[in-house]
Amino acid sequence: MALVGVHRDRGELRIHESLEELITDLADYIAELSEASVKERGVFAIALSGGSLIGLMGKLCEAPYNKTVDWAKWYIFWADERVVAKNHADSNYKLAKDGLLSKVPIVPSHVHSINDSVSAEQAADDYGFVIRQSVKTRMVSVSDICDCPKFDLILLGMGSDGHVASLFPNHSLLEEKDEWVTFITDSPKPPPERITFTLPVINSASNVAVVVTGESKAEAVHLAIDDVGPDCPVLPSRMVQPTKGKLVWFLDKPAASKLCDDPFCNKRYSSDGKARGLECRRAGPLCSSYSGHLFHEMK
Ligand SMILES: O=C1O[C@H](COP(=O)(O)O)[C@@H](O)[C@H](O)[C@H]1O
To answer: CB within 6 Å of ligand 1 — which residues?
Structure first.
């Protein structure tokens, strides 16, 4: 059973009892967005990240999703990529290909991976061109408030330092306002050369999901979501604030364990692993950060 709440300005939180439950909820969420987008626009433009996210999407390769999802309508992009050969162990493309894309009937020409035979700067330029072409042909829609691409869904992971895509804390790339895709040659996490969507592109998407698991990320989750006051370090993950789109956090219990303005009205999980806040929530007024929200237990 998951707890779902809507934070007043940090989007919807889905906190899962187990990884298995999170994995199923994530597959349902992606499948539903795909269906809605294909119905509305005839296509589904999705941007992936690398890391643990791909393993957590694995259920999409299984029944019923492998048969019910309209894979032929999917257009795949990457929110970030390491500038390494496509068959390199560090490649986000390889990770997605091995873990997902080779197991479902995606049209190969709909998979937009980076040019891996040029410099990071050139790869970012080339990828920006690919996205401009995709906007021109309306495979990717365009934001109605700026000229940015509006992806149907951008899927992000988050590092324990709070980075998303290849946007790292205290890095000048966080200030990029003009480019859609940019590059980094000094990534604090190896490999050093990467390309990444910029915040204006991430924040123009119709839907953004941040998928975070494990206790090692609990502090970053706390800093990305809770109202921790003016001295709070501004993590890249906190700068994910879709202008008009919907933000959803998929968390497991360990990742959510340091949330203080939490769905449980400041009560953490009790030692037996039960979410005590459920009683608290039923009994009394809700934590102010979660006003105007729906809170329910998901079956
Ligand atoms: O380097 C990267 O790290 C993040 C987080 O990865 P995780 O394994 O800790 O989930 C990932 O989202 C990003 O795409 C990747 O390039």
So the answer is: 49-53, 80, 92, 156-157, 159, 165-166, 189
Cα separation, 44 vs 205, whole angstroms: 12
Domain CATH for 59: 3.40.50.1360
- Whether residue 122 is contained in a domain is answered as yes
Counting from 1 in the atom list of ligand 1, the atom nearest the Cα of 82 is 16
Residue 209: give the domain boundaries.
2-258
Q: Are 13 and 249 in contact (CB under 8 A)?
A: yes
Compute the distance between CA of residue 246 and CA of residue 244 in angstroms, rounded to an integer. Answer: 7
Q: pTM (2 decimals)?
A: 0.90
Evaluate whether residue 128 is within a structural domain. Answer: yes
Instruction: Say if CB 202 and CB 164 are below 8 A apart.
Output: yes
**Does residue 72 sit within a domain?**
yes
Domain count for the chain, please give it: 1
The string of pLDDT tens digits covering residues 31-84 is 999 999 999 999 999 999 999 999 999 999 999 999 999 999 999 999 999 999
